[in-house]
Write a structure and sequence with these properties.
Layout lengths: L1 E4 L4 E4 L4 E4 L1 H10 L11 E8 L16 H20 L2 E6 L10 E6 L10 E9 L2 E8 L3 H10 L5 E10 L4 H23 L6 E8 L4 E5 L2 E16 L5
Antiparallel strand pairs: 1-2, 2-3, 4-8, 5-6, 5-10, 7-8, 9-12, 10-12, 11-12
Helix pairs in contact: 1-2
Length: 241
């Protein structure tokens, strides 16, 4: 892949076509291509999208439509969260709700690792726009330690699970992350229903993303469909208490 600069436009030569990129994505690519590492063992890829004219209520200090810095950061942050979730995953604590015991459902995810802004292992492969939406194909090349995390997440005790979650669009950026968390909760519910005869008091363990999740908007809600690898490390039954 080669690159050429023009006065206000960056052009990517992909071998298939020439795609002119508008100004709002130029900063994003300059950040991502600050250094391209030469790790070829495993590459994580996915398509990410940001709406430059979001329907959600404006967030304090955020311009409308989104400027180039805001659009670049939103795409990078979403890609960083997803790639980190594929590499490191999360730890979880889940307490199923129980109406008869007057217990509310509780679900908590804690990331086990992060990818920081400007990480040179993140690169943009291609970009295009449709209406107000900007799409970016990005990849991340894990280092040796990160590849070990990837291998650990695929160990034999991990179970495949999938879930679909939702969250209100008016939450903006937070709505997408809430929808992803909701899909993880639904996936875990499915695992526990299949393995536990009785509803447990709580369950703890880890889960990782198997692939980049799919998002869409319908009737005022973000929806997220995602696949996971889940390791349930501890299940506490009610009879212990």
């Amino acid at each position: 892949m080669a690159f050429a600069y023009r006065t206000s436009t960056l052009v990517i030569f992909t071998g298939r076509r020439i795609t002119p990129l508008p100004k709002y994505i130029l900063l994003f690519l300059l950040v991502l291509f600050s250094g391209v590492p030469l790790f070829a063992d495993e590459v994580l890829q996915g398509r990410f999208v940001v709406d430059l004219e979001p329907v959600a209520a404006m967030e304090p200090g955020v311009p409308y439509p989104l400027d180039q810095q805001t659009a670049a950061r939103r795409i990078f942050e979403e890609a960083a969260v997803d790639f980190a979730a594929m590499i490191y995953g999360w730890s979880f604590l889940y307490e199923p709700g129980d109406k008869t015991r007057q217990i509310e459902e509780f679900f908590e995810l804690k990331p086990l690792g992060t990818i920081l802004w400007g990480d040179s292992r993140m690169t943009a492969l291609d970009t295009y726009s449709e209406g107000s939406k900007l799409y970016v194909w990005a990849e991340y090349r894990p280092d040796e330690i990160q590849r070990r995390y990837l291998a650990a997440g695929r160990e034999g005790s991990a179970k495949n699970a999938q879930g679909t979650g939702s969250a209100p669009v008016y939450l903006g950026v937070r709505g997408k992350s809430d929808a992803l968390e909701d899909s993880a909760r639904e996936a875990l519910r499915g695992i526990l229903r299949g393995s536990e005869r009785n509803k447990p008091k709580e369950a703890r363990g880890t889960l990782v993303l198997s692939e980049i999740p799919r998002f869409w908007v319908d009737a005022g809600y973000f929806y997220c469909a995602a696949r996971f690898r889940v390791i349930v490390k501890e299940v506490v039954p009610f009879k212990v208490f």
